[in-house]
Amino acid sequence: MNPCQPLHVRLRVYCRIVLAALGAMLTSWTYAAAPDAADAQRELLAGNYSFVIEHATAAARDPSASSDWLPLLVQAQLITGHYAAASTTMGEALAREPTNIRLRWLARDVAFANGRPQDAANFVDEIRRYVTMRQWLYRTPADLVVFGRAALLLGADPKDVLDKVFATAQRTDPKSRDVYMARGELALDKHDFALAARAYDEGLKQLPDDPDLLYGRARSYIDGQREVAMAALTAALKSNPHHVPSLLLIAANDIDAEEYADAAKLLDDVVAINPVQPDAWAYRAVLAHLRYDNEGEANARATALKSWPTNPRVDFLIGQKLAQKYRFAEAADYQRRAVEADPNYLPASDELATDLLRLGEEDEGYRLAQMLHEKDEYDVEAFNLVTLHDTMAKYGAITTDDFVIRMAAPEAAIYGPRVLALLRRAKTTLTAKYGVELAKPTYVEIFADQKDFAVRTFGLPDIPGFLGVCFGRVVTANGPAATAAHPVDWESVLWHEFCHAVTLQLTRNRMPRWLSEGISVYEERQADPACGMRLNARYREMILKDELTPVGSLSAAFLTPKTQEYLQFAYLESSLVVEFIVSHYGMEHLRGVLVDLRDGREINAALEKNVAPLEKLEKEFAAFAHERAARLTPGMDWERPGPSLLDPDASDELAEWQKKHPDNIWALTMEARQLAEQKKWDEARVILARIAEMNPSEKGPDTPYRPLALALRELGDTTAERATLEKWAAIDDEAPDAYVRLLKLAEDDKDWAAVTRNAERLLRVSPLIAPPWRYLAEASAATGDTATAITALRTLLQLDPPDPAAAHFQLAKLLHQTGAGEEAKRQTLLALEEAPRYREALKLLLELKSSGTAPEVPAPALPPKT
């Protein structure tokens, strides 16, 4: 296998190899003696279902055979889709052991498979009655697990079941796989993935090769740590290459990654094991939907429901996958079908609540979440949504015909108008560019707490790494308060997300992830060259080392990146594909792709019609990216010194190497760093200026402008320092250190245009601090922009400035100039309240008094002049 292939691709290749090898091995398998039930149990776990059916069927005809054979036969029949036969076998088993509650729990599965949900419910009630009448008879760990599972269905407190039933079973038999399965399933049902992972991990310590436990571990990690989940699935399929749940989970992962052909092949494998496996046919319905094959979708759904027409899980799964494709309206329709089929199937109601919230139907969504929480107080996702609703009830709202903006009320008062102004600019620019009209308002929710953002967006609080998300008409974003530790250009984030709102609504949410993200990142750069991701030294190296993902597989690069860096590279590469299409084919061709996606054409067909066949596009784009990377830093040598040269004791060897590589970025950077540490600022300045000249567009932590500005500051050359800082600020929208220093230097020079420019830059990352508002007020007042100065001072006073008296006084003076005497008087008195001996404020109060706008108040004694 190719080690450079993505993990999910390698996993599929591995599955095929193991399936072929194990199939050949099992075909020739013979036992020296007749197997017993324990042998058959091992074969069942290993996936040799035909072996189990053959020998269990034979044993069932032998009255002296162990009673363990019949449940094994039932399980094998269920796995392979022989549901009617399983029902017959189950009847025989119950006739032999009418009081066996483990059989009744298995009989529940048989009843469901044959479309008899009422019989399934009756079996649960029978378990309750048997245990109630003869508690002493059901004390084995396996019986305790069954009792606990039944009790949960009958409304028992989950914590009591965990602590009093499952814990007792586990202490009695630590190797009982059933107890770990039950604990894990309970946690997964409640969306407590950490608790689920703990249960499965404990079980795997006892039974390291159990495919069901490994599959459970994969489910626990699939939404957070896919690499861990995929490793667990690899192990599960090594133990059982025919493990249907694992094959289905990989297929679901392939659908997420837009690897639809690979998903279809895996579903074929599942259907070969069980021709009527409902989950497999539900996923086939999803694939048909994504192909716009309405007839195929309906037929696949009908097959999924063939043996159980009211199975709510079928529509739940279809809707869940469509929601993951941002088809929220269609997803909600499927979840409504699932709820209609079984109102007590809570996963569907849970998903429906989330879909409704993402569609902007908040009243119904939160009402449903409240209902779910009342029914099941241990459902983590429902609890989180109910708590979030209480938090958002305190949020303020800015409402116009085009937008409904929700923010924490104090923050709305500070930078809410800037949010609205930005969104209006984005709407004007992007709707015209993409030729779309937004018929309904866009909902934008900006969160002061990252956990609230994560709950609103994902249902869970511990989902880091996202700044904003767009669902179509609904945008959620982390605000400046949530990102204060690492300042982020919140304006660029909102521009990016609103661009999603435009393209998603244009295409009716029918776009691959790479194209959606690529357009939004590209439009960030178009809005402001300092914004968005750009090609840098590291990405240059990745491109030239042929680490580009083929365009047809780009969406998968977002799903299973090797590292966070590779995830960011997927965003950049996607934006470069969009840039390539626009620059080489034209904006109208990109719009053509989006229109065709809206009208039901698949992405590759849309690209071929409007741009080029995928193979040609991939080849042309790779050449474009390589050319861009190669000319990023002309004249710079990017060869990395060997590790031995980086040894502190190898300074002579490094110096010799540098003579042969005078323009090497790594050697120059190292040398500059050493000179700075030695405070040899003049020598460091020369080298850093050379690096900046050869690599002028590097932003972020590796920019050469930061250390160069420091060297110039240490040398006292403020003119050169300011010029360097301006170059840095012009290419980096998240460089608050540069903006703060530029503000001071520009203020000293009375360069009010520069003060205004850098105050605006600082407000893009830190609107909740006082300095940018003070500088903006000062520059606006100095240039005669009284309205802006007044607004800035009013905002400044909400931020607990270090000198509130001065702020009130400056505001009073400006208000007096505009004729707002009463308000000027109030602000003057507030200044004097802060500083009773404030001489200038006292003078202004006397002036206001003489003009008839101030009340008769005794003037405090003036302080002596100093």
Description:
- This protein is 68% helix and 3% strand.
- It is mainly α and 866 residues long.
- Among the domains are: 243-308, Serine Threonine Protein Phosphatase 5, Tetratricopeptide repeat (Alpha Horseshoe), CATH 1.25.40; 310-315 and 323-390, Tetratricopeptide repeat domain (Serine Threonine Protein Phosphatase 5, Tetratricopeptide repeat, Alpha Horseshoe); 394-508, 3-Layer(aba) Sandwich (Glutaredoxin), CATH 3.40.30.160; 510-632, no CATH class; 633-732, Serine Threonine Protein Phosphatase 5, Tetratricopeptide repeat (Alpha Horseshoe), CATH 1.25.40.
- Strands 1-2-3-5-4 form a 5-stranded mixed β-sheet.
- The longest helix is centred in the middle third of the chain and has 26 residues, at 409-434.
- The N and C termini lie far apart (84 Å).
Describe the structure concisely.
The chain is mainly α and 866 residues long. It has 44 helices and five strands. Among the domains are: 243-308, Alpha Horseshoe (Serine Threonine Protein Phosphatase 5, Tetratricopeptide repeat), CATH 1.25.40; 310-315 and 323-390, Serine Threonine Protein Phosphatase 5, Tetratricopeptide repeat (Alpha Horseshoe), CATH 1.25.40.10; 394-508, Glutaredoxin (3-Layer(aba) Sandwich), CATH 3.40.30.160; 510-632, no CATH class; 633-732, Alpha Horseshoe (Serine Threonine Protein Phosphatase 5, Tetratricopeptide repeat), CATH 1.25.40.
